[in-house]
Write a structure and sequence with these properties.
14 strands, alpha/beta, two-stranded parallel sheet, GH_1_N_CS, TIM Barrel, GH, globular, 15 helices, about 40% helix, 6-phospho-beta-glucosidase, single chain
Amino acid sequence: MTKRFPDGFLWGGATAANQCEGAYNVDGRGLANVDVVPIGEDRFSIITGKKKMFDFEDGYFYPAQEAIDMYHHFKEDIALFGEMGFKTYRLSIAWTRIFPNGDELEPNEAGLKFYEELFKECHKYGIEPLVTITHFDCPMHLIKEYGGWRNRKMLEFYERLCRTLFTRYKGLVKYWLTFNEINMILHAPFMGAGLYFEEGENEEQIKYQAAHHELVASSIATKLAHEIDPENKVGCMLAAGQYYPHTPHPRDVWEGLQLDRENYFFIDVQARGEYPNYAKKMWERKGLTIEMTEEDLELLREHTVDFVSFSYYASRVASGDPEVQEKTAGNVFASIKNPYLDSSEWGWQIDPLGLRITLNAIWDRYQKPMFIVENGLGAVDEPDENGYVADDYRIDYLAAHIKAMRDAILEDGVELLGYTTWGCIDLVSASTGEMKKRYGFIYVDRDNDGNGTSKRSKKKSFDWYKEVIASNGGIL
């Protein structure tokens, strides 16, 4: 008997506005933190809030300015997604298209119209939009004027954005994610929450206070979504990947537990409705005082998410031994190297069974439906003269991960709503800013320096994924 996925399983792909739309200053769009992050050696210090870059500077290339110009190509791109048979398409809203500065009282109609047309285009092909409200976007005006998410006033601006979106797109969108990889705030705070640190500031205090504001904002969004349209389903989203102990030594097991908790901290609040004791004790130990009101705690308690979504690229390894240092390359979530796993060209370790382990860990922890909203292989693709790429390595990677999630559903009984591969069309890499680190089923003719025709062409994986979807995961 062919093993298939459950009926109604939502197959698709995922992108983010700042990595694919381009048109950064078109139709009234304002400047955002994600725009002013250049490719090159300064990128990491900027996304982590260590180096100040609040505007474009000479001598740098900013890939998000043009990205793959999906703003002007979305009909062509969605037609290709439709041809593959997508049931869902995960995309994000550029906050500054809707509120260019972030603190206006009235939205920008041109921005609202763009997404309305995009959602209607999706429905034309039977594709259900899955919309991330904030995929790292924060208007630069809100960062300069208010300090980003460190400021409680952000709740008001985010609530206005959400109310606008839920009202305008009622009937067009029913699946929403509040914040992309919300745990990124601890690792890349400028990219994750518009946080820049002045010398001498208590960074931990600021990060966790900003985290509290985002968590309350997420609850406000969930409350609003359910009030405006009872059909709405709201999810949280984390960068996932279970930690394995480096050895059976108890201190390694303990370190893994600690690091998993750091990762799940946000989702514990969003899915369970209260701050876990381990977090309160950690704040106590570090001397952090997080300002919160009774109303905040009530919002968190009363308005938990409907489902838990996550990105999965690799498992991680933890060691309590300070001598064990050899880290994996490339990712913001670099961890100790696992000698039993192969790595991608960017040093990300490949662990399909780790996806099954992670699915089970999240299911056991929350018993809420899950959604894998990012999974994919970043690789250098070599197209022929027609733009065709024989990307068997990508097919192998995805097939192994799809088998692992199929086992988690059919053998282990986890509840999974859907699967959207990351970067279903080539786009700008969030971690490195590169175009040559490609994820898509669709090749885009553009290089790291912004050269190229932006012409789209199908890779070998395009037809493969089309068959996976048509067979509901029966043919891999």
